Amino acid sequence: MDYDPTVYLIDDDEALRLAASVTLKIAGYKVSDYASAELFLEDMNHDMSGCLITDLMLPEMSGIELQHALIARHIKLPIIFMTGYGDINESVHAIKAGALDFVEKPVPPAAMLLRVEEALALDRSNREAEASHDELQKKFNELTPREKEVIAQVVTGKTNKVIARELDISFRTVEKHRASAMLKLDIDNVVELAKLYLPEIT
Description:
The protein is an alpha/beta fold. The protein contains nine helices and five strands; from the N terminus they run βαβαβαβαβααααα. The protein is elongated. The protein starts with 5 loop residues before the first strand and ends in a 6-residue tail after the last helix.
């Protein structure tokens, strides 16, 4: 999977925003910075990869409101909140809503880089998992209706004999559909199948 992340930085304090941007660029990160949440949302798209560093107390749309806006749009960028106020209630609220971290300004460069590294590692992991799920979904969609029925029974731990009786087909037919499905899904054993099989795949 090609991974070309960007650190999206939002802060209405131009001096602090530029200082953080320089720190990140010197460390080798690609950076896009914005003075407001609204400007960021204008550029936002579902293909964005990387992480978001945003001030909590932004003008008009706050950092928390931006977080909720991204959740509503199913954008899953890891978020690091910055604040000069240290509001514990806002911190708890942000973390519960899925924020990666919450740090107080001024954020030491070393601490910022460490958190960005963690955020990008999380984003990459999430995208790899999503790509694996999509690939599995594609393979699952290629199964015949009967193969799907058999696999759904296999992952519950039922034997071929029990599956044959419940689906009212022969033992040999179960074996045939099971082997064909495993081949299409590129899975070697039932343990691996149970780990990959997801309930939402239908």
